[in-house]
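Why do we care about 3D structure at all? Because function follows from shape, and shape follows, mostly, from sequence. That is the central idea of this module. The next example makes it concrete: a single protein chain, its amino acid sequence, and then its structure expressed as tokens.
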Amino acid sequence: MRVLGMSTRVLGIGMHYLLTQTLRFRPGKEAPTQKLLASFAARTEALPGCMNANVYADARHEDVLLFIEEWASHSALEAHLQSESFRSLQEAVAASSDVPELHIHQIIQTTDASVLVRCASEVT
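And the structure:
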């Protein structure tokens, strides 16, 4: 997948929330919706509590996009989900895609790749 939106990855330890939407577009609707989602990601990332917002294109399926938002708190995510901006985006997405697959994940802890190095050294 390649990133189409902004990316300012924040590595944090502690609970946060991840909202993921997988979108499959009808033929001819991909490009305009990609632009809309990239613009929405940039605006979303500026909101209080938003740690990250990105749009990814699936390298194997031209008609699939993955939209991921990372939030510092449940209350920040909930405020975003209830916003007019989010509702407008969902209406635009619904007009150009099949029903999106939306998930909200509660992340207990995020670490970097050092955990993989540590586990690999414990195995050998």
